[in-house]
Amino acid sequence: RFFNRDSTDDRRTYANRQYIHIPTLHEVKSVLEKAGFALLEVNGSMQISRDDVRKYPPVFFVCEKSA
Questions:
Q1: How far apart are CA 67 and CA 35, in angstroms?
Q2: CA 41 to CA 38: how far, in whole Å?
Q3: Is 15 within the bounds of a domain?
Q4: pLDDT tens across 22-57, in order?
Q5: Range(s) of the domain holding residue 65
Q6: Which long-range contacts does 44-53 make (Cβ < 8 Å, 24+ apart)?
Q7: Is residue 28 part of a domain?
Q8: pLDDT at 63 over 70
Q9: Is residue 45 one of the residues assigned to a domain?
Q10: Which residues contact 43 (CB under 8 A, 6 or more apart)?
């Protein structure tokens, strides 16, 4: 995903275009498994607070290191 971001440098007044990679749930699960973790729980339905309700709340992963 690309997004525009204003420069934090006072000498530069233009916006620059930046890229951010937001991995899919499948990608995260795959990397965790390759690192030797067993995935115990995935929860993406909990809001941070009542005052900070998000359309896409953060996803929490509970893992256990495999033997």
A1: 12
A2: 9
A3: no
A4: 888 899 999 999 999 998 998 888 888 888 888 878
A5: 23-67
A6: none
A7: yes
A8: yes
A9: yes
A10: 59, 60, 62
Structurally, how many domains does the chain consist of? 1
Spatial contact of 31 and 14, defined as CB atoms under 8 Å apart: no
Residue with tokens 């899919």: 24
**Tokens representing 55?**
């359309």
Given a contact cutoff of 8 angstroms between Cβ atoms, the answer to whether 57 and 46 are in contact is yes
Position 10 in a domain: no
Q: Is a pLDDT exceeding 80 seen at residue 17?
A: no
Question: For tokens 């992963």, what's the residue?
Answer: 61
Q: For residue 22, give Cα distances in angstroms to 14, 15, 28, 49.
A: 25, 21, 10, 22
Token pair belonging to 65: 């290191």
Report in angstroms the alpha-carbon separations of 16 from 1, 5, 22, 48. Answer: 14, 5, 19, 30
